[in-house]
Structures are given as structure tokens and as C-alpha cells.
Amino acid sequence: MDPAQLLEAATDFAYHPGAHSDASAQDFLNRFPLPAIINALQTKADYPGLESALVDCLEKLFKTRYGASLIPHYMPFAIVGLGAESQKVRHLACQTVSCLLENIDEAIVIPLIHEYGVYQLLLNCLISGDAEVAASSTDAIRKLASHSKGIDIIFPESGNEATNLVNFATNCSPLGRVRVLALIVKLFSISTSVASRVYSSNLLSLLETEISNSNDTLVTLSSLELLYELADVQHSTEFLSRTKLLQILTSIISDASAESILRSRAMMITGRLMARENAFVFIDESGCRNLISAITGRFDLLESQNADECECALEALGQIGLCSKGAALLLSGAQPAGRHVIYAAFDQQQHGKQLAALHDLANIVGETRAEKDVLLDGDAEQNLRRLIYEAASKTSKLTPSGLLLSVLQQDSEIRKAGYRVITGLVMRPWCLMEVISRREIIDIVIDAFKETEKIGMEARHKCCQSIYKVFTSSSKLIADNALSGIATKLEEAINRGPYLGRKLSEAQPAVMTEQRF
């Protein structure tokens, strides 16, 4: 077969815009049979541009149903490809396995994976391939694990030593171990049942080992990044709470000698893990308090030393405060952890720190929670009110209304965060009275021209709705003549919607003719 002709046809097929139909794939293979293409890939790869064109062509070909149906008949080619020296060919072979798993019936594909030892070869690609090969092999293994019988290949009951991920990772280079950990995270995220197999196979102990490794900061940081990704999985807390990872995170956060970036990532992971309500089902209260205490213990040391780490600590507390149980925990005790967030939210000395703290305070006071979960139990509400008034007394504003007004008078980013804080806080009667007692606050909130960006407009409108809803639920306030105009103004602002700045909008010419006469 003429390599020049094949190169031209493969290039046209590979770079055809959009997906190919089965008819298109069949027509191409009628002109260039698959055995001939494979032979050219093996024997004429040194022809300029041919290997790359054929790899791209076959990748598109196997993504069609017709192309995928041919893969079981050419498994030896895929097996050779998984062990090829060319990284492009190895990537193609991994992609081919993915297409096989996606398009062919499980009753056919699983015996093929067993017969040809595909899983072992995919693991080898994961460890020894380049970044693209490692990513495609991970994707293929993830798809294998998504099959009900495929998961038994990855976690066999007999415990195959050659494919045991713990043993496999132990004998790898640091880069190889990080790739195995990334695979574990992908497997864990598939479902609760697969996560259970990951936990039962003791694979989370690999994360414990790497995160505890104080000899290689880069490996530790990479492992923390993977744990951060893992913490975002809905069922993560259920399994991570059974490991030593929470204690390890507490130790890292408390370790003054650790790299600042490691402490910051550990705090962010903690916040993500405890952001969901079910976290407090699986993590006992003492464990939660230890993590929060480790974070708050950094503030005295961070105030003037490391602004980035301080913002991470604030954000972690804000994440914990997303759910009502977390918010209540932050606002409980004689010295509530939430005080750091409240004080920072109204401190105008550091813009980034104040912005982070305002968003975190909005989380804690319930701006994102369902209405029934906004108000907190026990002493939390009393402490919140006390801390807000305490923060006001330490400034020239003296009152919470003065603090809130000063926030709304700052730049647009601070103002957006301020709307969120008021939206949550105003659900408390004492804060509602503070807000409506300052006409300047109401004037800013109802000002349709105040915000020019979509997020700011929506935040301002939501704030209007929140104030109006609480205000009109009180018959006493509605009957107060001194406040009678507020409800009307708020209602008009709400009815205009978040984006309509003018009551009557008319098209205006961008360029007008000069008035000569």
C-alpha cells in the first residue's frame, strides 16, 4: 500500500470535523482494510507523519460503533500496542481498550480482558508511559471498574500479587506512586460500592504513607492535591473517617515547621471534608473540634506573617460553616472559632483577607442554606450576635449597621460579598432592625444602577428579596408608619428583577449625527 496515499486518506479522516458515522467508518475501511493499516503502523512508522496520522485516524475509527465492533477480532494488535515503544501507539492502544469497554457487551469484553492480561498491561502503561499514556490508561482502568465483573479483575478475591495496587505502588518511583494514587482517587469516585472495595483493599493507606512522607515535599503536596480531589466525592467522609488521614491532617496543620503550602492544603482539605452535613455523622465531635482547633491555632501566628495561609484558614472555616452543624460548632464555646472570621470580615486593612472573610461569614450565617437551616441551635446564635456587636464596638462604626454600610460602600468585590452576608444575617430579627434603621443601606440595596456585573446584580437582588421577606413577615414592622416606605421600595426593586436598571428601557444609538443647525 502506498504510504503517501494512506497518509493523505488517514489525515483527511482524522481531522474531519465532528464525529464520524458508522457508514463513514465502513467506507474508509473498505478502501483501506484494518489489517493493512495495522501493518503500515508496524512497518512504516518511520515514514514522515504517517504514524501520527494513523494513530489519530484509528482513534476516531474505534470511537464509532462499527469500528469498536472490530476490536475483539484484533485484540493481539491492542496487546502489542500496549507494550510498544512509541508513546503515541501506547496511547492509541489504551484508547482502544476504552472503546472496547464502552461499546462491547460485558459478556464478551470481560473474558477478553482476562484472556489477554489487559489489566496488567494497562498498569504498566500507567507507570512507564508519558503523561498522555498514563491518563488514557487510567481512563481505561476506570471504565473497567465501572463494569460489575470488571471490578473483580482490579480487586480479585485471591489477591493477585502482580496486580495488587499496594505492592505495585511500593515498587514504583515517586512519580509512579503518585500516578497509582491518582488512579485510586478515580476508582474511589465511581460509586460507593467501588469506594468500599478501595477501602477494604487498604489502598487508602498509600495516601496516608505519602502524605506523612516528610522527605519529599513535592510528593507530599501532590498527594494532598489528590486527597483534596478525593474529599470532593460525596461518599468520601464515610470512608476517610475510618482512616488515620484526619489525624494526619490535624498534625500537618499544627506543625509550625511544615511548609506553609502543605498546611494551607491540609486546611482546605479539612474544610471540604467537613462542608457536608453527613460529615458530622461519620466524624465524632472531638475529631471535628481537633481539626477546627488546629486551624484556629494558626491565626495568632499568621496575622502578620503569611497572608495566603491566613486566607486559606479563613476559607476552611467558611467551608465548615456551610452546613448548620458546622456553623453551630464554629460559633459554640467561650471563644468560638468563628470569631476570627467575623473580626477579619470587618477589618479593612487587608483587602484579600477581608474579601475571603466576608464570603466565609456569609456561609456561616446561612446565605447558601435552606431557609429552615439558617438559624442555629443552642448558644451559637447568641455568640454570633455578641461577636458582631463586639466587632462593631472595636471600630469607629460602633454598630452592626455601621459595619454593614461600610462594607457596601467599598469596591464591587467587597460589596458582592456584603450582599451575601446581609442576605443571611437579616434572617435574624436583631439584624433586620439594624439594616432597616439605616436608610443608606436600603438605598444601596435597591439601587438598580449600583452593580454592573451579573453576579453583583444577582447578589443585590437576592439581598432585596431576603430583607423584604423578613420585613413583611412582621406585622409590627409593617404597621410602623416610620418604616412604611421601605417595603414599597424593596418590592419595586424586586419586581424590576436583578438586571433591569431602568423602569422603561429604550434603545439608544451608539453614534449620533452631529447637530449642525
From TrEMBL:
Name the record gives this protein: 26S proteasome non-ATPase regulatory subunit 5
Gene3D superfamilies the UniProt entry points to: Leucine-rich Repeat Variant
InterPro entries found in the cross-reference section: ARM-like, ARM-type_fold, PSMD5
GO CC terms, sorted: cytosol
Gene Ontology BP annotations: proteasome assembly
Stretches of the chain forming a coiled coil according to its record: none
